[in-house]
Design a protein that fits this description.
Layout lengths: L3 H14 L3 H20 L5 E6 L4 E11 L8 E3 H7 L8 E5 L5 H30 L5 E10 L2 E6 L5 E4 L15 E12 L2 E7 L3 H11 L1 H5 L2 E9 L3 E8 L6 H6 L4 H9 L4 E6 L4 H8 L7 E5 L4 E6 L4 H5 L4 H10 L2 E6 L15 E2 L8 E2 L16 H4 L10
Parallel strand pairs: 2-3, 7-9, 11-12, 14-15
Antiparallel strand pairs: 1-2, 2-4, 5-6, 5-8, 6-7, 8-9, 10-11, 12-17, 13-14, 13-16
Length: 399
């Protein structure tokens, strides 16, 4: 019912498609057994076996030895069993080879269906396995089609598409068919239509991988990224540090005349980036995270995970940022709730707290980069009521 060409085809599938032949044969045996039972009766206790080494297929029905059989599909008489093998006794299970010649056509049709189904299934699994290695990676893709707000890109080296949904795009992103686009592989899911790859440009992982790509010291591990807080298309804060005394973490990220950071900013459509040098001292870390604003002092409440920051009156709006953006990102970056107060908020009695405060005499404000250099935010009205400033907290976890 099957010839050696069939088994040769199984070997070719194993070689070309990386499909395990033994697994394939087990699946095929089960399918052929099911087809046989549907044709000759579900009551039969039958099994179809394939023998690749002999290029043959056999069908066995299993019957219990009894004195007088009542169900010939499941039972065989002791006398008939002894004709097969003299040692059989009542209660033994006998394998009887069937000689159903007309099963050949059904078997061939079933085998073809199983082969095609298994081939699609295993190709999908292999594709998912290969693509899983690309998760959390930066890829250059080609825009294949645009449907509404969703952009579909082709992953290089495969026929699989990735979907860049609206919330994964950077505000200001514009795409045309055929464009080459860098994306971050956020998640790979299996669906009835095949592997679905979700890619992103707004995820913080996108910035992290851009630093890996553009800053050799980050790629090698000499400079490490501690954390990233991001408002896609507007501003991001990246905390970096190094254990090497002879390496300047921020300088390495900036590059010669800003070449490295400007390449990253270009890819982000001009999104500003504040480079923050990480410190294990939370007072110093919080002060640096509020860059480009100058900070006079910081004090923290560990039990509440809160901090109070004092800034010059004329830098209050810069520290808070438009719509609270600067302080919100600083809170995300550090993991501390931050309450920003102007210097005039301090009273004489507060001078007794000096020993618990971290005094920052100098804070460089040149670690924020965009394509048109730094630009200060417009200051808010100088007579703003303090209660309108309020306590600004971290409004959400890092994306």
């Amino acid at each position: 019912m099957v010839n050696k060409d069939f088994f040769k085809a199984l070997e070719d599938l194993e070689t070309e498609k990386k499909i395990n032949k033994e697994t394939f044969i087990e699946t095929l045996e089960m399918a052929l057994t099911s087809a046989y039972k549907k044709t000759y009766g579900e009551a039969k206790s039958a099994m179809v076996k394939l023998y690749p080494e002999r290029n043959t297929i056999k069908i066995y029905s299993y019957k219990t030895v009894v004195e007088e059989p009542e169900d010939t599909d499941k039972e065989i008489s002791l006398a008939d069993a002894k004709e097969i093998k003299k040692s059989y006794k009542v209660g033994d299970m006998v394998a009887v080879e069937e000689t159903t010649k007309d099963f050949g056509r059904i078997a061939a049709q079933t085998a073809k269906q199983v082969v095609m189904q298994k081939l699609r299934e295993m190709e999908r699994q292999n594709a998912i396995s290969e693509l899983a290695e690309k998760e959390d990676e930066l890829l250059t893709t080609i825009v294949k089609r645009i449907e509404g707000d969703n952009v579909y890109v082709q992953i290089a080296g495969s026929h699989t598409e990735g979907v860049l949904m609206k919330n994964d795009q950077i505000p200001g992103d514009k795409f045309n068919i055929g464009d080459r686009v860098k994306v971050y592989v956020k998640k790979i899911r299996d669906s009835f239509k095949g592997p679905q790859i979700q890619v992103s440009r707004s995820n913080v992982g996108f910035i992290r991988k851009l630093f890996d790509l553009e800053v050799p010291e980050v790629a090698s591990g000499e400079v490490k990224i501690k954390n990233i807080a991001r408002d896609p298309g507007k501003r991001a804060k990246v905390a970096v540090y190094t254990d090497r005394p002879n390496v300047d973490a921020i300088g390495a990220c900036v590059g010669n005349r800003g070449s490295r950071i400007n390449t990253i900013v270009n890819e982000l459509n001009g999104e500003k980036i504040d480079l923050v040098e990480y410190s294990e001292d939370p007072l110093e870390y919080i002060a640096r995270a509020l860059s480009p604003a100058k900070v006079l002092s910081v004090e923290t409440n560990d039990s509440l995970n809160m901090s109070q920051v004092i800034v010059p009156d004329d830098k209050l709006s810069l520290a808070i940022g438009k719509s609270g953006q600067n302080v919100r990102l600083a809170a995300k970056l550090t993991g501390w709730k931050i309450d920003v107060k102007p210097e005039s908020y301090l009273k004489p009695a507060d001078s007794a707290k000096e020993e618990t405060e971290y005094e920052l005499t100098e804070l460089s404000d040149d670690t924020s980069f965009d394509l048109s250099d730094l630009e200060e935010l417009e200051p808010i009205a100088g007579d703003a009521e303090l209660e309108e400033i309020g306590e600004l907290e971290d409004l959400g976890d890092e994306e």
